[in-house]
């Protein structure tokens, strides 16, 4: 129950102050961003404060084409003194250069001096493949390939793809240094050809729900597993998150053709955040008799 209006306003006020501070820092740190990058990073800073009910569980390309979200974003920009023409121009840039801006954001993220992520393979992945014979693995939105490289070292035949070309190039370079082979593509979650009954393992490590249930359920071989780790929406209470979030119990429902092997929502150290937060971990198998 809400006890008073003024109490309810406090978190909103805190959010506004935090958002203003984020935007100010962004402006101060990145004076040479192009108009497109500024429009993108401004939108990303805003979306990372929005609750899951507002932003939806899709990635940037879904978010920036969601009319309801854009209406809210317009109102936010108006409130911050942007003219209608400015707002139209910013939103046009987001639409026209979605892929390029997304790739640039992630290339810059990985190239930063101290990117705040765990460079080691994901611990849940290691736990879930333990004892499984290596087969064909797909690493969706592989980033710099920390998981692809580890899987390849364990004898898996790995394919990974990502929108961020420089991150993929870095994964290939590292594979050469380690003396392992990985197949890579620079492409998007929507454009990749997942195939049918093709993979013994599909990994979504901080990659949202990837292309969603249909393509993943079709693409797994019978007996193959899907492994997912991502942020739970609760993580928003303590940090800003631009990417996909999941509600309590959402993942097992999202993949009805798969049998859940393990599902948990612990407070843990996320691979892509500097402090503990709630994460979701899901491992599910495509039934043999499918
Ligand atoms: C949080 S990182 C996770 C990287 C990697 N899976 C890992 O766990 O190390 C998210 C990744 O998703 C990629 N990405 C974002 N949008 C994408 C899209 N539409 N298609 C393909 N990759 C995308 C980014 O480039 C980035 O590498």
Averaging pLDDT over every residue, what do you get? 89
Structural class: alpha/beta
The CATH topology of the largest domain is Rossmann fold
Shape, per Cα inertia axes: globular
User: How many domains is the backbone divided into?
Assistant: 2
The first-level CATH class of the largest domain is given as Alpha Beta
Q: Name the helicity range.
A: 40-55%
Report on the biggest sheet: 9 strands, mixed
Name the poorly predicted regions.
1-7, 27-31
Please tell me about this protein's structure.
The protein has 2 domains: 5-111, no CATH class; 123-285, Vaccinia Virus protein VP39 (Rossmann fold). The protein contains 12 helices and 9 strands. The model is unreliable at 1-7 and 27-31 (pLDDT under 50). Helix 2 (35-47) crosses helix 6 and helix 2 packs across helix 7. Strands 1, 2, 3, 4, 5, 6, 7, 8 and 9 form a 9-stranded mixed sheet that branches. With 290 residues, it is an alpha/beta fold. Strand 8 (267-268) and strand 9 (277-285) form a beta hairpin. The site of S-adenosylmethionine has 21 residues, from helix 7 and helix 9. S-adenosylmethionine binds next to helix 7 and helix 9.
Secondary-structure blueprint:
Blueprint: H1 5-29, H2 35-47, H3 52-55, H4 60-63, H5 67-79, H6 84-96, H7 98-111, H8 123-129, E1 136-140, H9 146-153, E2 157-162, H10 165-178, E3 182-186, E4 199-205, H11 213-219, E5 220-232, E6 245-246, H12 250-254, E7 259-264, E8 267-268, E9 277-285
Parallel strand pairs: 1-2, 1-4, 2-3, 4-5, 5-6
Antiparallel strand pairs: 5-9, 7-9, 8-9
The structure holds S-adenosylmethionine (SAM).
């Amino acid at each position: 129950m809400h006890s008073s209006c003024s109490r309810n306003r406090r978190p909103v006020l805190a959010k506004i102050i935090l958002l203003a501070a984020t935007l100010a820092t962004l402006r101060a740190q990145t004076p040479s961003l192009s108009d497109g990058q500024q429009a993108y990073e401004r939108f990303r800073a805003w979306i990372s404060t929005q609750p899951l009910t507002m932003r939806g569980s899709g990635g940037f390309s879904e978010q920036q084409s969601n009319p309801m979200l854009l209406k809210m974003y317009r109102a936010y920009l108006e409130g911050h003194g942007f003219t209608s023409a400015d707002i139209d121009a910013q939103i046009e840039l987001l639409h026209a250069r979605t892929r390029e801006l997304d790739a640039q954001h992630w290339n810059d993220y990985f190239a930063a001096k101290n990117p705040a992520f765990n460079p080691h393979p994901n611990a849940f992945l290691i736990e879930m493949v333990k004892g499984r014979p290596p087969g064909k693995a797909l690493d969706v939105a592989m980033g710099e390939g920390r998981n692809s490289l580890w899987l390849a070292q364990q004898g898996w035949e790995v394919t990974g793809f990502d929108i961020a070309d420089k991150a993929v190039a870095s994964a290939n370079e590292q594979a050469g240094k380690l003396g392992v082979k990985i197949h890579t593509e620079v492409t998007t979650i929507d454009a990749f050809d997942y195939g049918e009954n093709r993979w013994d393992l599909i990994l979504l490590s901080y990659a949202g729900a990837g292309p969603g249930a249909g393509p993943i359920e079709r693409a797994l071989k019978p007996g193959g597993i899907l492994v997912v780790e991502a942020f739970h929406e609760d993580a928003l209470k303590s940090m800003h998150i631009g990417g996909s979030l999941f509600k309590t119990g959402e993942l097992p429902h999202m993949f009805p053709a798969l049998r859940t092997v393990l599902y948990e929502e612990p407070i843990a150290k996320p691979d892509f955040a500097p402090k503990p937060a709630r994460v979701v971990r899901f491992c599910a198998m495509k039934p043999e008799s499918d």
